[in-house]
């Protein structure tokens, strides 16, 4: 099944047509009346590999390619904003490694390569006494075999073929007027 929006082919150029896929609205007043879901699944394979899902932004022949934005919506006044999960599936008892997750920015032929930024939202509002959200990075556990280690965490700066390699900076933020700046703790686990 192929669904394609219209071609923009004016003499001076025309925008291509858009595609919109929207779940149904829930107009009822009950909290159980949720909006309609959108599910996209690759095809099932009985013995071979299941179908993949690929998402690409639009290509440009001369300038910038399109963006991809994946976001949950802002909450209403009495709720929470939706969560986002990026997971690979578990494997069976005899099927080997589970899938990896990779974040890569593209190479830059004449400029600076793209950054990868992970940041947590701020706590706003004078009546809000909660702390800011945490960032946690945890390697995989080894739960079945003795003598086999858990996963590692490796931080490596970028190398340069002709100049200096990159720096690593680890710091806590400057405190506010009524506090102290955060500390840095480094521990190894108990034996």
- Note the total helix count: 0
Main β sheet profile: none
Beta-strand proportion: under 5%
Can you tell me the overall shape?
Answer: extended
Structural class of the helix and strand makeup?
little secondary structure
The total count of strands amounts to: 0
- Poorly predicted segments: none
End-to-end Cα distance, whole Å, is: 57 Å
- Average pLDDT rating: 91
Q: Helical proportion?
A: under 10%
What's the gyration radius in Å? 24 Å
Describe the protein.
With 191 residues, the chain is low in regular secondary structure. The chain has no helix or strand. The N and C termini lie far apart (57 Å).
List the helices and strands and how they pair.
Layout: no helix or strand
Quick structural gist:
This protein has 191 residues and is mostly loops. Helix content is 0%, strand content 0%.
């Amino acid at each position: 099944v192929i669904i394609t929006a219209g071609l923009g082919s004016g003499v001076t150029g025309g925008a291509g047509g858009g595609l919109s896929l929207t779940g149904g609205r829930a107009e009822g007043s009950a909290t159980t009346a949720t909006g309609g879901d959108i599910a996209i699944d690759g095809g099932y394979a009985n013995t071979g590999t299941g179908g993949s899902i690929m998402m690409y932004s639009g290509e440009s022949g001369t300038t910038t390619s399109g963006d991809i934005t994946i976001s949950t919506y802002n909450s209403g006044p009495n709720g929470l904003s939706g969560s986002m999960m990026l997971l690979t599936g578990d494997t069976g008892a005899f099927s080997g490694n589970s899938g990896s997750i990779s974040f890569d920015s593209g190479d830059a032929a004449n400029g600076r390569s793209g950054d990868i930024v992970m940041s947590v939202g701020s706590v706003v509002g004078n009546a809000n006494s909660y702390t800011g959200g945490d960032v946690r990075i945890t390697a995989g556990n080894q739960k079945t075999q003795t003598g086999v280690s858990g996963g590692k965490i490796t931080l490596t700066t970028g190398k340069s073929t002709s100049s200096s390699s990159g720096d690593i900076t680890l710091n806590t933020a400057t405190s506010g007027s009524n506090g102290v700046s955060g500390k840095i703790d480094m521990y190894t686990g108990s034996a």
